[in-house]
Amino acid sequence: MLIILPPSETKAFGGDGDPLDLASLSFPSLHDNRQNIIDILRQYDVDEAMKVLKISEALRAEAEENSKLLTGPTMPALYRYTGVLYDALDAKTLSDKAWDQLAIGSALFGVVRPRDMIPFYRLSGGTKLYDATMKSRWGNSITKALEAEDDFIIDLRSGTYQALGRVKSAVTVRVENSEGKVISHFNKFHKGQLARAIAGKDLHSIEDIMDTPGFRFTEVNGTQLTMVV
Fold first, then answer.
1. By the 8 A CB rule, do 166 and 145 touch?
2. Which of 41, 48, 159, 166 has the largest count of CB atoms under 10 Å?
3. Beta 224-228 vs 171-176: how paired, if at all?
4. Known InterPro entries for this protein (predicted)?
């Protein structure tokens, strides 16, 4: 089983790992795409980067970090990403088996494993680099990399990141309230809780997910699962 988590805009600064070694990252077929995107990001000066990334002066330090992608410190990807979903996941308390069953989508790296050592970066799935969308820059490489995994895939990425590399056979999850309205604000929190509940388990089908204690699922539409909260 492979659970693909969405990335987060918020990330932990710093780290105590050596600078990025692209060759050491999981899903090595994505190496060239990763290198090309890094090369482009490093071409922007900070002021240009802020415009491209559409961030305010308050986040200037995040744009500055993109100039250090190959020289800055790294940390495990699962600790690099922060925010609501990752708080609910509580990675430090997960088993080794749970870590082994996780992956994280990324505009910069495509998809990484939790133990991959990555630097701080700022790049969103909706960003355009020199007028080329991230979807066009990744092409079908993420899809191919994931389809090569011989696993039952549960894709918890948002629509923006699923679009960078869809896997037709993957189970996707949407979160609704009891009135059938899609949850937006706490969507990531509930997905983080679900990921925590199933990571480390041996699930092989959408029915196995629906049997997860403490969760309520009301319908299956092909490979899409609806979680009611």
1. no
2. 41
3. parallel
4. YaaA
| Lookup result for tokens 């992608």 | 69
Tell me the sheet residues that pair with 118: 75
Residues 6 or more apart from 107 whose CB is under 8 A from it?
7, 37, 123, 124, 125, 127, 134, 161, 164
Chain center to CA of 81: 9
Per-residue pLDDT of the chain (229 residues; tens, 9 = 90+): 999 999 999 999 999 999 999 999 999 999 999 999 999 999 999 999 999 999 999 999 999 999 999 999 999 999 999 999 999 999 999 999 999 999 999 999 999 999 999 999 999 999 999 989 999 999 999 999 999 988 899 999 999 999 999 999 999 999 999 888 888 779 999 999 999 999 999 999 999 999 999 999 998 888 999 999 9
Number of domains in the chain: 1
Cβ contacts of residue 126 below 8 Å, gap of 6+?
Answer: 133, 134, 160
Q: What's the CA gap between 175 and 228, in Å, rounded?
A: 6
SS3 at position 140:
coil
Report residue 43 as tokens: 């071409």
Rounded alpha-carbon distances, angstroms, from residue 46 to 37, 67, 70, 73, 134: 16, 8, 16, 19, 20
- CA–chain centroid gap for 146, Å, is 13
CB 209 within 8 A of CB 203: yes
**Residue found under tokens 């979680």:** 227
Query: DSSP 3-state helix, strand, coil percentages of the chain (rounded to 5)?
Result: 40, 20, 40
